[in-house]
C-alpha cells in the first residue's frame, strides 16, 4: 500500500479510538523537507483539537498512543501540535518492489464506475488551430489521461460549431477564392477569412470539381459543407500529430435537427417568458445574476439555446459528469449553463468548466502576436514544427490553466537544465543509460541497501505518485503532474551525483541502487505519459 495512504489510515483509526470519526480524505500528509523533522508530518491534531475539546499537543499525544507503529521507526510532536513520522527504512524500500512489479500500472487508481464526458478544443472549423486552441488541447487531453489513469471512465468529445454565421463567412471566403482561381471577379467578404488555408481549400475544391460550382443552384451551401469537411480534416490531422484523439464529434447542425430546440423550449416552458418580442429563460431563479435571452426578437436563437440542447443530450447518454474546457472569456457562461441543467433536475456540480487563460509567446526576447483573421497566427502546426510536440505539450500544462502563460519558444528548444522538459527527459534517459550499463547485475527489488539521504528522499517521492495522480484528477490539474516530474528529476540527478550506482566491488549496494533506478525510470515514464510527453531512452 502507498505510504501516504497507509499513514492516513493509521491516523484515522487512532482518531476513531479517541472518539472522533474522520475519513482518509480529511487527513493531510506533508513531506518533511528537513530529515531531522522526519519523513512525513500531519497537522491533524491541530485541525481537530477543537472538536475534541483538548489542547492540540494533548490530542497529538493521544493519537500517538493509539497509533499502529508497523513500518514507523518513531513519532514526535513538534511545535503547537504537528506530528512527525520517521519511517523504517524497509517501509520505504518496499516502494521499489511495488513499482517494478506494477510497471506501467504504478500509480493507477481503482475503477470508479463513474463516467465523465470531457469536451475540449471544439474550435470552429473555419481555419487552422491556433495557439489558444493548442493550450486547450494539451490541458484537455492531459485531464483525460489523468482521469483515466485515476480510474474514471472518460469520453473525449469535440463539438463542431457548424451552424452559425462563421460558417457562412467561411463559405463566402472560399467562394471568393474559388472565383479568383477561375479568373472571375471576386470580392473577399469583410467578415470573411483571409488566410492562406482558405486559398488552399479553394484550390482543392477546384481540383475536385473544376468550375461546376458556377452552375449550382446554391453554391454557398456546397462550400459550407465541403469547407467544413476540409477544415475539420486538417484539424483532426493536426490533433493526431499532437497526440490528441476524440471519441465523439458532435455537430451543432445535427443537434438542431428534428426541432430539438423547440422541444427543449417546450420542456423548459415553466422557466420561459417573453419580453419585448424576445424569449428569455429564468436563469436568475437558480445561479445566474440575470435572466438570459434564448431567442431574439427577430426570431434568431442565441448560441446559448443549442448549447443547452447539446449538454442535456450529453447527460442523456449516461454520463455522471460533464467537464468542458473553455477560454477564460466564458466565465459568465458557467452559471447560466448550470442553471439550465438544474432546470432539468441535475445538480449544479454535474456541469464543470475549466477555464483556460491566454498564452503570450516570446521568442528571442520579443513578443509574438497573432491574428487568425489576417492569416499571420501562430498555429499549432507551426509551434510543433518549431519547438516539438513534447516541449509544446509540457510547457502548456506546467502552469495552472487559470493562470496566464508566457511561452518562451527559445527556452523550449534549449538543451539545458533550464528547459523543464529537457531536464525531465534527460533524467529518464540517464536512468536508462545506467540500467543498460548495469544490465548484468540482478536487481535487488527489495532495495535492502538503500540508506543514504538522497536514496530515502527519492524513495519518499516515488511513494507519493498515486496520491499525486488522484489529486490531479480530482482538481483537473495537469500542472501537479509536471511539478511532480520536475521534483522527481531533481531527486534523480541528486541521487546520481551523490551515489555511485554501479560499483563492481560492492554488488549488493549496486543491485539495490539499480532497482531504485528502475523504479524511478518507470515512474518518470508513467508521469510523462499522463501529459502526453515521450520518455526517450537516449538524448
Describe the structure.
Among the domains are: 3-87, Gyrase A, domain 2 (2-Layer Sandwich), CATH 3.30.1360; 92-107 and 416-530, Isoleucyl-tRNA Synthetase, Domain 1 (Orthogonal Bundle), CATH 1.10.730.10; 165-241, no CATH class. Helices cover 48% and strands 14% of the residues. The chain has 21 helices and 15 strands. The radius of gyration is 28 Å and the shape is globular.
What are the salient characteristics of this protein?
4-stranded antiparallel sheet, Gyrase A, domain 2, 48% helix, alpha/beta, Isoleucyl-tRNA Synthetase, Domain 1
Rg, Cα atoms, Å: 28 Å
Largest sheet: 5 strands, parallel
- Taking the alpha carbons of the first and last residues, their distance comes to 34 Å
What is the CATH superfamily label of the domain at 92-107 and 416-530?
Isoleucyl-tRNA Synthetase, Domain 1
Strand line-up across the major sheet: 7-6-5-11-12
Shape: globular
Would you identify the CATH architecture of the domain at 92-107 and 416-530? Answer: Orthogonal Bundle
Name of the top-level CATH class of the domain at 92-107 and 416-530: Mainly Alpha
- Give the total of beta strands: 15
What is the fold named in CATH at topology level of the domain at 92-107 and 416-530? Isoleucyl-tRNA Synthetase, Domain 1
Helix % is 40-55%
**Unreliable segments (pLDDT under 50, ≥5 consecutive)?**
371-375
Quickly count the helices.
21
Report the β-strand fraction as a percent range.
5-15%
What do the pLDDT scores average to? 93
- The assigned structural class equals alpha/beta
Amino acid at each position: 500500500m502507498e505510504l501516504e495512504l497507509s499513514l492516513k489510515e493509521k491516523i484515522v483509526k487512532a482518531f476513531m479510538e479517541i472518539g472522533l470519526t474522520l475519513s482518509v480524505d480529511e487527513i493531510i500528509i506533508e513531506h518533511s523537507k528537513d530529515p531531522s523533522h522526519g519523513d512525513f508530518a500531519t497537522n491533524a491534531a491541530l485541525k481537530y483539537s477543537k472538536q475534541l475539546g483538548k489542547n492540540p499537543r494533548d490530542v497529538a499525544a493521544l493519537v500517538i498512543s493509539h497509533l499502529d507503529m508497523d513500518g514507523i521507526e518513531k513519532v514526535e510532536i513538534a511545535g503547537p501540535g504537528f506530528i512527525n513520522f520517521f519511517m523504517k527504512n524497509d517501509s520505504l524500500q518496499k516502494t521499489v518492489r511495488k513499482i517494478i512489479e506494477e510497471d506501467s500500472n504504478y500509480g493507477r487508481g481503482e475503477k470508479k464506475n463513474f463516467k465523465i464526458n470531457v469536451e475540449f478544443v471544439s474550435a470552429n472549423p473555419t481555419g487552422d488551430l491556433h495557439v489558444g486552441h493548442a493550450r486547450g488541447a494539451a490541458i484537455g487531453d492531459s485531464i483525460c489521461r489523468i482521469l483515466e489513469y485515476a480510474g474514471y471512465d472518460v469520453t473525449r468529445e469535440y463539438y463542431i460549431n457548424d451552424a452559425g454565421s462563421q460558417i457562412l463567412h467561411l463559405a463566402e471566403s472560399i467562394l471568393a477564392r474559388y472565383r479568383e482561381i477561375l479568373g472571375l471577379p471576386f470580392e473577399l467578404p469583410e467578415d470573411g477569412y483571409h488566410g492562406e488555408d482558405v486559398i488552399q481549400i479553394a484550390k482543392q475544391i477546384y481540383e475536385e470539381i473544376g468550375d461546376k460550382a458556377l452552375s449550382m443552384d446554391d453554391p454557398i451551401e456546397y462550400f459550407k459543407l465541403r469547407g467544413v469537411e476540409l477544415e475539420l480534416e486538417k484539424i483532426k490531422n493536426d490533433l493526431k500529430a499532437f497526440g490528441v484523439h476524440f471519441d465523439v464529434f458532435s455537430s451543432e447542425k445535427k443537434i438542431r435537427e428534428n426541432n430539438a430546440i423547440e422541444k427543449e423550449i417546450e420542456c423548459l416552458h415553466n422557466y420561459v417568458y417573453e419580453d419585448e418580442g424576445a424569449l428569455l429563460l429564468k436563469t436568475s431563479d437558480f445561479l445566474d445574476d440575470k435572466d438570459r435571452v434564448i431567442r431574439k426578437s427577430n426570431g434568431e436563437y442565441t448560441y446559448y439555446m443549442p448549447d443547452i440542447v447539446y449538454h442535456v443530450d450529453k447527460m442523456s447518454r449516461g454520463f455522471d459528469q460533464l467537464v468542458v474546457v473553455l477560454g477564460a472569456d466564458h466565465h459568465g457562461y458557467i452559471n447560466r449553463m448550470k442553471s439550465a441543467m438544474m432546470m432539468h433536475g441535475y445538480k449544479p456540480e454535474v456541469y464543470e468548466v475549466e477555464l483556460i487563460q491566454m498564452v503570450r509567446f516570446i521568442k528571442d526576447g520579443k513578443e509574438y502576436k497573432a491574428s487568425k483573421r489576417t492569416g499571420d497566427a501562430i498555429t499549432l502546426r507551426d509551434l510543433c514544427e518549431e519547438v516539438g510536440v513534447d516541449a509544446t505539450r509540457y510547457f502548456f500544462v506546467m502552469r495552472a490553466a487559470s493562470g496566464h502563460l508566457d511561452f518562451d519558444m527559445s527556452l523550449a528548444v534549449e538543451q539545458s537544465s533550464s528547459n523543464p522538459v529537457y531536464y525531465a527527459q534527460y533524467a529518464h534517459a540517464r536512468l536508462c543509460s545506467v540500467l543498460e550499463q548495469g544490465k548484468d547485475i540482478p536487481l535487488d527489488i527489495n532495495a535492502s541497501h538503500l540508506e543514504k539521504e538522497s536514496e530515502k528522499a527519492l524513495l519518499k517521492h516515488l511513494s507519493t505518485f498515486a496520491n499525486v495522480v488522484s489529486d490531479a484528477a480530482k482538481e483537473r490539474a495537469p500542472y501537479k503532474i509536471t511539478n511532480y516530474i520536475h521534483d522527481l528529476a531533481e531527486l534523480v540527478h541528486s541521487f546520481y551525483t551523490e551515489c555511485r550506482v554501479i560499483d563492481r566491488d560492492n554488488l549488493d549496494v549496486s543491485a539495490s541502487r539499480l532497482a531504485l533506478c528502475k523504479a524511478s525510470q518507470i515512474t518518470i515514464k508513467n508521469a510523462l505519459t499522463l501529459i502526453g510527453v515521450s520518455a526517450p531512452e537516449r538524448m
